[in-house]
Amino acid sequence: MIRLTSNNVSLATLQARAQAAIRRLPPLLGACAVRHTKENFRQGGFVDNGVSTWPGRKGNTDPGRGVLIGKGTGHLFKDIQILSQGSNSVTVGTTLPYARIHNEGGTIAHPGGTAFFFDRKKGKLAWVSNTAANRLATAGRNLPRTKAHAIHIPQRKFLGKSAVLSAKLRTIVQSELRRINNQP
Fold this sequence. Notes:
Radius of gyration: 25 Å
Low-confidence stretches: none
Oligomer: single chain
Structural class: alpha+beta
Mean pLDDT: 89
Order of helices and strands: EEHEEHEEHEEEHEH
Helix content: 25-40%
Distance between the termini: 32 Å
Strand order of the largest sheet: 1-2
Largest sheet: 2 strands, antiparallel
């Protein structure tokens, strides 16, 4: 009978360790990708061999707030998550419909119809929700509404391939491979 061993570990033991590592990798890699993506928000740009800083908000009235952080919400940042995970794959992203336009940039064809008025105290236009505008209209005060127009959204990449992320993922895989053969 021939017995195969590596570093005094049986082939069956190595196989069991390898299968355990394969099960551990998707959640480990996914969690790393989520952390890296959220770090892009903290850095205010895409981290890949340095930081590609995002363009600022047009008419920024809150310079202390991160560019892609909504007023008091942070929904996009909070929604970065593992979307799916299989036995040998993991997908990280967001479920929010507006995420793609921010990540890739582009133009939105706004249909118009948003109610507004000129706020004399602040000296600028104020937008009004449809609910409030309809209530005012019922009370006999019709507000003007915007016409259809294009809105350009600059690219603010927060999710995608990155040499920095690839290096982090490679380190995790190498660590798991060392564990298979009980190497430090």
